Amino acid sequence: MRNAFCDSLLKHASDPDFVFLTGDLGYNALEPLQKSAGERFLNAGIAEQNMVSVAAGLANRRLKPWVYSIAPFLYARPLEQIRNDVCLHDLPVKLVGNGGGYAYGVMGGSHHAIEDYGLLLSLQNMRVFVPAFAADVAPIVEKMLKLPHPAYLRLGRDEKPKDLEIPAYAPWRPILKGGGPTLLLIGPLAGPWLSVLKGQPESRRPSTWVLTELPLDGDGVSAEFKADLKRSGHLAVAEEHVAHGGVGEMLPRLLLQAGEAPKSFSHFHAKGYLSGYYGSQQFHRAECGLTPENFLKELGT
Question: What residues contact 182, with CB distance under 8 A and at least 6 apart?
Answer without folding.
Answer: 206, 207, 209, 225, 228, 229, 231, 232, 234, 235, 236, 262
